Amino acid sequence: MTDPIDDVSIGGEMIRLGSFLKYAGLLDSGGDAKEMIIDGLVTVNGDVERRRGRQLHDGDVVEIDGRRVRVRP
């Protein structure tokens, strides 16, 4: 069984990864987001993502600390 995926509506077409981590409540600050991304602890669609400015779109799945969240417009 896989972990559930929570949907988070971003209210638009695109959001950057660092902003999404804060917006979705996965991390508390931009500094935390930067560190987790640089350390390779964040995945997007199953691949490690080290770019805080990565653009996320509808359907992208972000995972951090075992929590999975899907981007929705």
From TrEMBL:
Please give one Pfam family short name: S4_2
Q: Tell me what this protein is called.
A: RNA-binding S4 domain-containing protein
The answer, when asked if Cell membrane is one of the entry's keywords, is no
**Top-level lineage group:** Bacteria
What keyword terms does UniProt attach to this protein?
Answer: RNA-binding
Q: Which InterPro entries match?
A: S4_RNA-bd_sf (IPR036986)
